[in-house]
Amino acid sequence: MTFSPGAVLAPAVDWLNQNLHPLFGAIAAVVNAVVNAVVGTVQAVLLWPPALAVIAVVAVLALVLLGWRMAVLALVALGFCLVMNLWKQSMETVALVVVAVAISVAIAVPLGILAARRPRVEAALRPVLDIMQTVPPWVYLIPAVIVFSLGQVPAIIATIVYGVPPMLRLTTLAFKQVPKGLMELGQAIGAEPRTIMTKIEVPAAMPTLVVGLNQCILLSLAMVVLAGLVGAGGLGAEVTRGLTRMEMGLGLRAGLVIVAVAILLDRLSRAALQRDRSRGAA
Fold first, then answer.
1. Which fold has domain 15-48+84-281?
2. What pLDDT digit, counting tens, does each position of 170-184 carry?
């Protein structure tokens, strides 16, 4: 005899849809409005200027703030997106990733700090995080699509859920690894808890936080691309189109552009955080 989870979950989902449909509809409407407004604004900012202007601005900012290597990387990566004729899709993907990562970090970092200070909270979160990181990424799209239908909203929701666990785990690890001697030194000189947090704990935890942010960015990008299956648009839609139409050239171009965007986001975020850390140390 084989047990099917669907035989139990399907009636439950049907009951929820029949009895709580107005509630889910109201929640979906609010989330749709907020997400579409935020993502739409970021996409509009990226797509309104000419592509060459965006590339030039990013390269100049990278040169001034992060050095010539980051400027060259920005020129090459963004120029490749433009040459491959996938500029609009690339900016849509970048906007989705930026919004999803920002929300994921805003959720994960406070929870990670709390878990580092409260062993019971960490013990309660650990099995939840284990399950979240074990479930295949495309499974997250199923409940998101059921509640929020197709489009960018289920993509953002699924991406946030997928990006929180690595950031949360590494935030907890980072703050647990802060040397106790530094903490005691701060307390001995009479520093306030807020000062100890910003001047001692955060700089000491920054290397591990950088790793967590990079993991969050790359996993979020992978989920956003996968979300092309549910109408999220961007580069994921081009990959899906290439697969469904058996267009090898389109799929290959989109895949290479995804690699370029991933490398750019990873290197820029790492360089920016390391720069802030060196400033704090100075």
1. MetI-like fold (1.10.3720)
2. 888 888 887 777 777
